[in-house]
Amino acid sequence: MESSVINAQGAHGGDILSMAKQLGCGVGDLIDMSSNLTPLGMPRGLREALIDRLPEISFLPESGSENLVRLFARKYGCDPRQVLAGNGTTEFIYAVPAGVRSRRALIVAPTYGDYQTAGDWAGLEVEFFFLKPEENFALDFNRLSARLTGGELVFLCNPNNPTGRVVPTKELLAFILAHPASEFLIDESYLPFVEEPTLAGFPLPANLLLLCSSSKIYGIPGLRLGFLVASEEKMARFAARRKPWDVNRMAQVAGEYLLEHGDAYIQSVRDFLAQARPGFVARIAALPGVRVIPGSTNFILCRLTGSLTAGQLREAMLGLRIMIRDCSNFTGLDAHYFRVSLQEPGRNERFLAALAGILGEKP
Fold first, then answer.
1. What CATH topology corresponds to 55-261?
2. Which residues, in sequence order, are CB contacts of 27 under 8 Å at separation 6+?
3. Rounded to whole angstroms, how far apart are CA atoms 230 and 185?
């Protein structure tokens, strides 16, 4: 019975509640290295801030998250009229293709699968621009430029999920400016993990739509809070169709607290990654039968080089109550790719020991 549960492959990582229920264990019995959340847990003080203001769920939230938007705009030096807060960035991933004038979507892949679904649902002609594994999935601007004909909506995740590769912000902005006939949806959900400035802090080109997430860096995916940032003219079209009360009150409270108090926490996450990631990656790379893709984020993409598939590895790991991400359902990756995220040192050690044991049995 357990085998049939383990073989079920979800569309996303991090579904620890469902997995614990299916395996008949507690959430605390599982080590979740399949999600891309911060390894340091919820920021200190956030829980108390939410508890203190819990009575506010007795009232309607601000209709347009006005205070939250104002704080975001103040932090990044943009106009509040250029910002929308929403029920996670996923809301905007699906709203943007239906709200732009593009008829074709070009997705830089392998990447997050919901971009394709959003393009399909909006009736766009969906095409892929595939990054090359022999180039470690680095973005080649010249090749991408050759694919742009004008009128397309380009989806690009920076840093990219699942590869962990990051494009320098200024280089990306220059590319966007050089292609004004194309529209770009840039997803910066993982940018806070690296030392790169957000595009939200630069003058926004008319052909740019930017996604900023609170879920990953702060470890609060259950609250659902994200932002869409664009030029005032472009944003006016989306604001006119905005639903009232789109962000619940606790998410608004969390966002306000984190925008005012979250910078030190973000730096602590970056410091942890700088200290822990190199050794963790080196130990994976030293194991037989696995290759690590170079990256910069809290998650690491790997490829099994023998006969063992990522699905088989996932099954074996779940037998040890460790969750990893089988990446075979990412368009552009084969059945041998998997992804893991850094956790606290004890959990990292358990994963490394489990991986070494499994690879030792099946080189």
1. Aspartate Aminotransferase; domain 2 (3.40.640)
2. 16, 17, 20
3. 10
pLDDT in tens, 28-82: 778 899 989 999 999 999 999 999 999 999 999 999 999 999 999 999 999 999 9
* Dist CA 208 CA 262 (whole Å): 26
Instruction: At 160, give phi and psi (nearest 5°).
Output: -80, 140
Other residues' Cβ atoms within 10 Å of the Cβ of residue 242 = 16
Of the CATH numbers 3.40.718.10, 3.40.50.12780, 2.30.40.10, 3.90.1150.10, which one belongs to the domain with range 2-32+264-361?
A: 3.90.1150.10
Q: What is the pTM of this model?
A: 0.92
**Overall residue count recorded for the chain in this entry:** 363
Question: Cα(213)–Cα(189) distance, rounded to whole angstroms?
Answer: 5
The CA-to-CA distance between both ends of the chain, in Å, stands at 27
pLDDT band for position 24 (cuts 50, 70, 90): confident
Does residue 157 carry a pLDDT above 60? yes
